[in-house]
Task: structure prediction
Amino acid sequence: MSIHCYTPTTVSNHKRTCDAWISIHGNVYDITNFITVHPGGEEVLIEAAGTDATSCFDSIGHSDEAYKLMNDLKIGKLSSKDEHPGGEEVLLEQAGKDATEEFEDVGHSSDAREVMQKYKIGELIEEDKRQNKKPVKKPPPVSSSASGDDFSLWKSWLLPLTMGVLAIFVYRYFIAS
Result:
């Protein structure tokens, strides 16, 4: 599983008690649901929300249990720039195409959708949307004509039936006698 990268600016946008993130030692944590049960009190986390809390965290001297709890709250790592968690190859593969279907198939989070908005430069016009659609492969129509190239329903069951009757005839009159 890939780890998402968040910029300090993105972390700073999550500084409310109903939506709180912090970064510690280059990792990003969603502490929203942890604020009310923090052993050191809510105030410390509310004050640190949206910031790099490494120095505050290190000055306290947390237990091994605290480090285990942090693993459950980790949502990504801190980076100087937003990076795609699947790597740049995923983006390059979709370059120049309408990647809506692929984007939706992956099931991106609301955070991914927010990040995407900052890179949006415009919208496709309807004509371009139609041109970028993948061609749909339709099954060949079933034909009932008698031409030699067509595979008809008659041939699909008549030939096996004839072969079966012939096999029974050969077995009964030549082999079983």
